Amino acid sequence: MPNFQFDTIAIFALLISIQTLVQVSRNWADFWDDRVTANDRSLAQRLGLFVILPLTVLLHEVGHALATWQVGGTVVDFQWRFYWGFIIPVGDFSLAEDWWISFSGNLVSIVLALLPIPFLLRIRKRIIGEILYSFVLIGIIQSLVAYPILSFVSQRGDWLRIYDFTIQPYATITLIVHIALLGGLWQLYRSPMAIRWRLGRNPAMLDTWESLMHQTMDQPMEIEPQLALADLLIAQNEPSAAKQVAAKLTRTAPQDERVQLLQIEIACQNQDERRTITAAKKFLRRDLTPALQIRLYQILSFSQYKISRFSEAVESANQGLTIAPNDNQLLCYRAINHWALGQTEAAQTDLDLALTNTPDPAQRQSLQTWCQDRFNRK
């Protein structure tokens, strides 16, 4: 990728960072209060991606420069272009010294991404934790996954030198540590400790999760608490943990229709739309309770929307609404698909009905925002 393309990306990132800072300043009191809303989390993610990450890019290049000076070289050019950068080191370097110069900046990036992890559980101000959590995720993905891949795809960048296996034992040791670190971080992300932190965004939800966890441990053969736990994890976007519960349920009660529905729900959350649609249609051929049918039509309509089969998604919603005419989720899905088909009036009608039948204030507010954004109305 030529430099001007990197520069173009950096310019867009700079503009977004300015917009983010302006938005935070305009919502200063709401952003820093004790209540963390979905909008606050979105801003926290943007601060991590477009404000903190560019600063670590600068420190990444400083790391390269310090390593160059450490081995007796000279930095003849130092460039920090917000979202990317480079230095030009000059000197009579050995292969090991050349490797160290390439690795040092990435070591800085990795350490900076990992540094906040031990403090996340100790930070009492939730929004600060959300900012740091967003940065940790972004920093790990950028330094341990995205940049190594980009280096090899573009055939430029530090990781070509870092993984030059003629430079031993450094390249091999780095590969072993790299794989172990990714594996360990993935296990940490899926751990009960991390799930507890994420669910802590909603204290009531956290209490429910802890109660269900205790019930499943006290009554390991009872499927009701496990089903409730899996449903909660799916609703809170914790697919890995939900999959573990589902695997246990499949061994305990493989013929239970609710357990089979759970497998379809997990496929849906994993964005395996075609598998989800096939399984849901096959399941609907059975003699099911109305509650199971409604949930399957919700899943069908959503999955068909995801792969742009809007007319089919409307029909799936229609079939579900013949069973439950006031189901707000089916009304929402039908509205979104009507809107995707350009049927604005039908979409507005469905959303009005959905708002009327939505008891949860947060969901109702989200729907009202969607209406305002799409139809310029409240």
Automatic annotation (TrEMBL):
Signal peptide: none annotated. Keywords: Membrane, Transmembrane, Transmembrane helix. The chain crosses the membrane at residues 6-26, 47-67, 99-119, 131-150, 170-189. The keyword Transmembrane helix applies. InterPro entries: TPR-like_helical_dom_sf. This is M50 family metallopeptidase.
